[in-house]
Write a structure and sequence with these properties.
Elements: H1 2-29, H2 36-54, H3 58-81, H4 89-111, E1 116-117, E2 127-129, E3 132-134, H5 136-158, H6 160-170, H7 172-177, H8 182-208, E4 210-211
Antiparallel strand pairs: 1-4, 2-3
């Protein structure tokens, strides 16, 4: 039972990254990003490709996946969401649905539709505390997730860009009148949220040892 609890904590933290990203985008741009799940899957497949096919260290793969998915998030905002700012809200929502389908199909075309084994880069059963066994992978993923969450909180609470994000989420018109570039802030929110989605994707891929694009 405790083994299941640990697994739930690790998976729950990964899925919390996805939830935070969706909430961040909705709060700043008032758009539900239905492409977020596709970004999560893309992060998993990209992580597999880097680690299994090119031997990239897992920590370096994390950095690359976050950077690439963040860029994808900016592209989604610039190409699909921003042109529809003045359109009814349903237009941007449907645009993210379309983008999600495009990402999923492009990933399937590039990497193929087959399930692949994800390499075990960290031990999963090398610690035991009170009869409960867990591994370096559990500790590393849990610690990194907490660090990322804490860093995001500090960024939003104390940094200049974080304050701009909070101001835009509260009142975009007032933020624009105060000289805040609302468009740039919304792109930043998409970048952060998509990076978190990609990070969650590679975490779940590493933990589950196999993924399917």
């Amino acid at each position: 039972m405790f083994d299941t609890l640990i697994a739930g904590l690790v998976h729950g933290n990964a899925y919390a990254l996805i939830a935070v990203g969706i909430t961040l985008i909705f709060g700043v741009s008032n758009v539900i990003n239905f492409a977020h799940g596709a970004i999560f899957a893309f992060g998993s497949v990209l992580g597999w490709w880097l680690i299994a096919q090119h031997g990239v260290p897992w920590w370096a793969a994390l950095v690359v996946v976050v950077a690439v998915t963040a860029l994808v998030g900016v592209a989604i905002d610039v190409l699909a969401v921003r042109p529809l700012r003045r359109a009814p809200a349903i237009a941007a929502l449907l645009a993210t649905v379309a983008v999600g389908l495009i990402i999923e199909n492009v990933v399937a075309l590039v990497f193929g539709p087959d399930t692949r084994p994800f390499p075990q880069v960290l031990s999963t059963n090398n610690f035991q505390v009170g009869g409960v066994r867990f591994g370096t992978s559990d500790v590393a993923m849990f610690a990194i997730t907490l660090l990322v969450m804490g860093g995001l909180w500090a960024f939003l609470r104390f940094s200049r860009h974080g304050l701009a994000i909070r101001a835009t989420a509260q009142d975009p018109d007032a933020a624009a009148q105060m000289g805040i570039g609302v468009g740039r802030v919304q792109s930043l929110a998409f970048a952060i949220a998509s990076g978190l989605g990609g990070l969650a994707g590679i975490f779940v891929g590493l933990y589950n040892s196999n993924i399917s694009p």
